[in-house]
Amino acid sequence: MSIPRLLTMLLFVLLMAPVGTAMAQQDDGSGEKLLEQLADASPASTEEALQAIAASGHERARAWLEAYGNNRLSRVKDTGEIVIVLNNRGRDWTVADAVTGENLGEMSRRDLDRIAINNAVRRQLAGVLAMLDLYAEDPEVREEAARDLMGKVDEAVLDPLIGRLDEEPVAAVRNRLEQAVAIYRVEQEGSIEAVDVLAGSLHPRARAALNSAVASENPALKAAAQKALLSVEQKLKMNRAAETLYFGLSLGSVLVLAAIGLAITFGVMGVINMAHGELIMLGAYTTWGMQQLLPGQPGLALILSIPAGFLVAALAGIAIERSVIQFLKGRPLETLLATFGVSLILQQLVRTVISPLNRTVVTPEWMSGSLVINDALSLTLNRMYVLGFALLVFAGLMLIMRRTRLGLEVRAVTQNRAMARSMGIKATRVDIMTFALGSGVAGLAGVALSQLTNVGPNLGQNYIIDSFMVVVFGGVGNLWGTLVAGLTLGTINQLLEPWAGAVLAKIIVLVFIILFIQKRPRGLFPQKGRAAEG
Amino acid sequence: MWLARPLQERSTQLFLGILFLALIAVTALHLALPEGHPLHVSAYTVTLLGKYLCYALLAVAVDLVSGYLGILSLGHGAFFALGGYAMGMYLMRQIGDRGTYGDPVLPDFMVFLNWQELPWYWYGFDMAWFAFAMVLLVPGALALVFGWLAFRSRVTGVYLSIITQALTFALMLAFFRNEMGFGGNNGLTDFREILGFNLRSDATRLGLFIATGIALAIGYVVCRGIVTSKLGRVSVACRDAEARTRFLGYRVERVQLFVFVVSAMLAGVAGALYVPQVGIINPSEFSPIFSIEIVVWVALGGRATLYGAVIGAILVNYAKTVFTGVMPDAWLFALGALFVLVTVFLPQGIAGLLRKRRKTTDDGSGPSDAPTTAEATA
Amino acid sequence: MLQIEKLNQYYGESHTLWDLDLDVPQGQCTCVMGRNGVGKTTLMKCIMGEEKVADGSIRFAGDVELTKQPLEQRARLGIGYVPQGRQIFPLLTVEENLRTGLASRGDGLKTIPERIYELFPVLKEMKNRRGGDLSGGQQQQLAIGRALVLEPRLLILDEPGEGIQPNIVTQIGEVIRRLIAEDGLTVLLVEQKLPFARKFADRFAIIDRGRRMAEGEISELSDQLIRQYLTV
Amino acid sequence: QEGPIKVGVLHSLSGTMAISETALKDTVEMLIQKQNAEGGLLGRQLEAVVVDPASNWPLFAEKARELLAQEKVDVIFGNWTSVSRKSVLPVVEELNGLLFYPVQYEGEESSENVFYTGAAPNQQAIPAVDYLMNSIGVERWVLAGTDYVYPRTTNKILETYLMDQGVAKEDIMINYTPFGHSDWQNIVSDIKRFGSAGKKTAVVSTINGDANVPFYRELGNQGISSTDIPVVAFSVGEQELSGIDTGPLVGHLAAWNYFMSVDTDANYDFIDQWIEYTGDEEAVTNDPMEAHYIGFNMWVEAVRKAETTDVDAVKDAIIGVTVPNLTGGYAAMMPNHHITKPVLIGEIQDNGQFAIVWQTPSTVAGDAWSDFLPGSRDLIADWRAPMSCGNFNVKEGKCGASAGEQAKAAAE
Amino acid sequence: MSIMTELANRDRVFNFLTPTDSPVDVRHGPILYLEDVTVSFDGFRAINDLNLTIDDGELRCIIGPNGAGKTTMMDIITGKTAPDTGSVWFGSRHNLLTMSEPEIASLGIGRKFQKPSVFEALTVFENLELAMATDKRVFPTLTATMKPEYRDRIGEVLETIGLKDLMHRPAGILSHGQKQWLEIGMLLMQRPRLLLVDEPVAGMTEQEMERTAELLTSLAGKQSVVVVEHDMGFVRSIARKVTVLHQGSVLAEGTMDQVSNDPEVIKVYLGEEA
Lengths: 534, 378, 232, 412, 274
Ligand SMILES: Nc1ncnc2c1ncn2[C@@H]1O[C@H](COP(=O)(O)OP(=O)(O)OP(=O)(O)O)[C@@H](O)[C@H]1O
Ligand SMILES: Nc1ncnc2c1ncn2[C@@H]1O[C@H](COP(=O)(O)OP(=O)(O)OP(=O)(O)O)[C@@H](O)[C@H]1O
Ligand SMILES: [Mg+2]
Ligand SMILES: [Mg+2]
Description:
The structure holds 5 protein chains of 5 kinds.
Chain A: H1 3-21, H2 31-40, H3 46-56, H4 61-69, E1 73-76, E2 82-87, E3 92-97, E4 103-108, E5 112-114, H5 119-133, H6 139-149, H7 155-167, H8 171-189, H9 192-198, H10 204-214, H11 219-268, H12 276-293, H13 298-323, H14 332-353, E6 370-374, E7 377-380, H15 381-403, H16 405-415, H17 417-422, H18 427-449, H19 459-474, H20 479-519, H21 530-533
Antiparallel strand pairs in A: 1-2, 1-5, 2-3, 3-4, 6-7
Helix pairs in contact in A: 1-3, 1-7, 2-3, 3-4, 3-5, 4-5, 5-6, 6-8, 7-8, 8-9, 8-10, 9-11, 10-11, 11-15, 11-18, 11-19, 11-20, 12-13, 12-18, 12-19, 13-18, 15-16, 15-18, 16-18, 19-20
Chain B: H1 10-32, H2 43-68, H3 76-95, H4 108-112, H5 128-152, H6 157-176, E1 188-189, E2 193-194, E3 197-198, H7 202-228, H8 230-240, H9 242-247, H10 252-278, E4 280-281, H11 288-301, H12 306-326, H13 331-345, H14 349-361, H15 372-377
Antiparallel strand pairs in B: 1-4, 2-3
Chain D: E1 5-10, H1 18-37, E2 46-51, H2 57-70, E3 75-78, H3 82-94, E4 99-101, E5 114-116, H4 125-136, E6 140-146, H5 149-164, E7 172-177, H6 185-194, E8 201-206, H7 212-221, E9 231-233, H8 238-241, E10 253-256, H9 265-278, H10 287-306, H11 311-318, E11 322-324, E12 330-332, E13 340-341, E14 344-348, E15 354-359, E16 364-365, E17 379-382, E18 389-393, E19 398-399, H12 403-411
Helix pairs in contact in D: 1-10, 2-3, 10-11
Transmembrane segments (chain B): 12-33, 39-62, 69-92, 127-151, 158-176, 206-223, 255-274, 294-318, 330-350
Main location (chain B): membrane
GO molecular function (chain B): branched-chain amino acid transmembrane transporter activity
């Protein structure tokens, strides 16, 4: 334990109490001085500078610390003035005076010197910020802060923490704080009572602490920790299983989304559409385009992209159908050839017109992060949305194919075109509409995928093979088949992955498909009966 | 003999004639004219042509199954690559202790990934006869096992296409794995000599080119022999009405298996000749997209006309060579447009153009060379 | 109802129909006869628009020039077609097969008219079976039923009795007569079986090698004609 | 001696690698343009010969041959990925060409005709690990990579290195994924678990190309922040970041020899020039671009020194050539055809740039043969006469047969 | 694998010991023997406890309402459909249920389908060539040559079916009736021991019908023929023994007169006037 640390601790205790109780504070050390201290700090003295700022109670302290954490605290080379960078894109940056917050306008990047931070410091900073947050009004912020503190407690904050613990009115927050303290106690002091506090916790840090206790010399501690761990283990297994299932479904939903449009164009219409992937890509680029049009509103842009992506891809689909596919009725191999050509053109088009580089699609706030079920199980939100979206799209399509005339007509047209026309079905219109529908759905897939993966010229290529695989595995012409196939393959893959590794898992899935098709030569949901056998 | 039959056919004679003329012409122009002469064919061009011929042989193999047997194989790249790997392993072993690390047995990539000994499946590849046999046997055996499974269970149509694709995809992933012992993503490269000839000498290049030409000729005759035989007609029958063929007493699955295996072996040979000429074999040859591309060559050339496959393969790859050099930024547009235009305006592929011309000249062929009818309606 | 004049049709190089004339009067059943391969089916396809005609005219209901109408439109004009070989949609259920015709009816009806099921009860029984699974005869009934869903003014039947059990053949004949009598339907029938033709048709036309060789009331169909054009 | 000096550019403009390589093609073209504006070289103009090997490895060899045999270029700048280089290598050696390879790679190679201006493992991986160990206090390691040779070799080297440093075997987790892997849920969850053992954990990522975006996304969504488990990547540069929503990634790391954010005038000038050349205010620069910048200048320098573009002369002249790099120092061409480079560690910022958090005090010379692999420990490369050997075994005191010599022997 | 299970069944003569390729054994009477055969599709019983015996050289007509299961019965005999229960024997030696379609076909059971199915891409000539009774294994097929006697035989059949003029045209362009004839021709080429003919005269004129009738009766005696037909005139002209199927089982059996006077048959099939 170093002397400076001890001193800080004292300082901290002294200064924190008033912050917690009353808002009475005076601006003692001037802002400039504090910042100066931070800017000039050696790696060893950074923490001290940070805590000084935190303890200062300066109204802009938080802003400084956050700016510092985000690499936005800079010094003007010539004047030595400390500024906060507001916009750091491009060659000229907008800056504001750190102390006053006054906007100073643009400044060339060349003239700024960043005040360096690294991860070790950032960790300290996080602790400091969490400590500040412990005194926030909102109990949720406090709980979040308390959770952040788990595993980050050191001597410096232990006492204030315990002080805070006594004052904390909300049980949940208190609980967290107790655990945070207990982790410290188990790890540093080998306290057996603390082990009991951690017994039920699923938090990884709590488990880590218990694990370290198991390795300890003290037999009593060891036994207690072992017992505590045992109770957690079972719960963890369940969570683990739930998590894997979720992973599987979510991968499956991606497969379903990618394939479902193809289930229409290929499965129902019989067009081997190699450009399907590029239609997905168009959907994804539409999302990007929308976000460019509506800067700062990624969420709104994303929602608007749903109809827009559908429309763009559907229009592209119509163009493809009119210009190429209509001439290739009943010649699947030629549709493969022509759409392969189309796919090359579309890829290169995007490369030339937009950029060969990937584009950034921002994930809106409400889609990032995870839904925390408990400390060991949290479900990523973006994938949850995608899963829901996939199911919605599927339901919608099902409705169209089953409940509207289009569904009946397209099946009639593909089974016997001449006869369907003899029955008065406008085959050309049906072709256009169906292809547009399939393409549009591919566009929707693109919108969703933009939230999971790269938006770049190769996007389509990555999904085309999988899509065909899913459609065929499910049984050509059967939408249910596509859904079940996608979810099954996804789940199998994720179940295998933990023990086989990603590469082998994929290989096994492929081999599984090959073998499965031997057993059911017409996919999961085959078309049965005399007609299918030919 | 069924193999002699195609030799009496005008179209085959014409094909072989053109092929051999081309071989002789290239050889002569390469050897006789000095470098710098406008008509001189450089070693670079010779190798390039050799590569096209490999692709042509591969396309012929694919056409045999997809055009005549109705099995749209989207995984023939796998057989090609396996043939290539067999050859690559031979060439690797030929390096001997001249590798970077000087290990007499282990190839370089094994040394630096710390392999202690040669995996068993590398044994024997130091012997040319063994390796060359493997060029035929490995793809053949894979096709046999795979085909036996698939045809026995009557997997047809797109289902078959997709599992061939799954096959090549799985193999690609497997060969990417370094643990497999085939050099992972880098594959096998840095070859030195073949049968004692230095691979970097122009004479060897020319030799390989000629060998490829001959292989193509043989492959073409073999396929043509099958196609013009009664078995060829049975294949077409299987393609169009599999069940009906069974009721006539043909074991459809065996016919399919036979043709599939022959085709796989031809693809293997093509791969084996390809590797020493391009100097590398790596798992991307297994990629499904490559296999799809092969089908595209065939379709572009004209399906179910073996020579169409040859034309398609050479044309597309020539176009690629030219376009990637002349308009590196926009060549995909050109290639894509080529595919689209051919399908829309030449429904029978390029061979359709030629056939139209031929139709007007000769007509009323006898039944013995009748399989052209399959082409007429395909 | 239908006047065909100087119709010529080619399959590629081969000239199949030669200057063919045919008159199908309203409210009657006209039976086209001829040996195998003389072009009967081809003629029906020309009327439906499935094959292109080289020249000649097909006039429907007095003034509509059918050769200028797209295929789909002919169904909407009120021509029902029961093709040779049935051509049902194999993977649609029986009911769906029937429903394909609903959109071409002018009245926007959404359900299958009960009458169809009355005429062919087996269709009701097999409503949910795939069309392709039906037996040959059942399919034939389905094909006729499907054409009737359109409520056509002109019904074209290409060998409707083929593969159907005798009592149903008779029944089909009766249905035809009933429709003619009740709805004023016009029927164009292709039939090889003399007894059937004699019993249910009003008029006949004989085609040989793509030309119309004879035409007249069914009672005029003499043994001499039969020997000349219908025997091999 | 008439006509322009031809400079071959062998970078994929289509296919999977186009994402990375297109910018390099532009860089070379820009450098040529600038050189020409300054009067060319030896009084002659430079001319770029651009071909597209389309991310297809055999095509790389073919195109290299086209450049050397047909176009008769004097030098080639090109390739990205080891396999493309390995494919081209025999061709360049056979036809005695010059190839400047601008990307970090696994080492274990030294060719007479190839100049490696990207980082060898000792110029990137090892310093990065040192940094994590010493400055961040990392004790537990996840080595995650795409399953191909570069990650395999790098991880092998790192594993040996870490164990030498006393890291226990169970504190190292190695994970490989296929190219373009897009579903990282399980792996990220594993990493999370692995990192919850109470020891500070970091991920050393050799994940390649497109797979990074979904990987980082998943990291962010599963709530792994850089303060919990930092990720240090060797293949993620500014260009890759420009396709990622960097918000959730702030604080993750990358190790390179150059960052766009480097605070030197040379760099700012280069950036200005690049933005002007591309006409895109948002255009970014990255490490391989700097490598080309250095390589190009070295070649120019060497040609000047040799007063000819003749390959053998340039090859001899270039060893020892020193040119300024963009990070305020100098890069020298070493006898083993690798160059000296500083190693920088940068943190991802929300603007898609890296903030430099650490750098080596001086430049590090690239090592062709790793000291941490048993097979190559004793090998060195030195292309100066009289040794002229790419894999000299210092223990045995003899030169292993090298490809270059082979070619020469054949030619004789 | 299958050998292993066979070895376990010691009470039977091993399959591989009985010569399967031996000619059909008809010493004990019938050439075709169906017993208690039942098939259902999704719960619908298409064939229901069917018993049927065909004697060697017999010409048998089978009639019955649409959907009675006639075609399905043929599917079972030729191995296309596997019955749920029952046994089907060809002669007294061959259990057809254990054989595949090609095996059954090469044993000598030929079939004409209800919907004419010919190889549309092949010419008429080639269609017949493929049907010809020769060695149909892969290698013999590969090396097969067109011998003069084969050509003659095909010529003969072409004559019989009246498609001589069209012999080099692809079968796809034939009219419906022509296809019917071609299929009959293919059946003749096969020279089977047992012919299963499903609705041969659909789409034929009266005269052609007569010719077909002649053809079939001329075959009987040497070969056994089973004809399914709805045309009563035709059936009457060839029939010796008639079996009536109804709802998957035999409703009546006897001479044409017996059958056509059977009130049940009249009710479900013939109708009052027939
Ligand atoms: N698509 C086609 N291409 C070329 N010729 C054809 C085509 N379809 C039919 N034909 C020929 O045209 C002629 C008339 O055929 P069509 O089908 O009209 O005869 P049909 O009178 O209906 O005979 P059937 O009574 O047998 O049904 C036949 O000789 C047939 O071979
Ligand atoms: N695969 C199948 N799935 C469902 N039902 C089937 C299937 N195959 C046949 N059926 C039914 O079995 C019954 C018998 O059919 P089958 O074709 O054998 O009749 P059939 O006696 O040949 O009639 P037809 O004289 O009309 O040809 C029919 O009702 C048919 O719908
Ligand atoms: Mg007809
Ligand atoms: Mg039937």
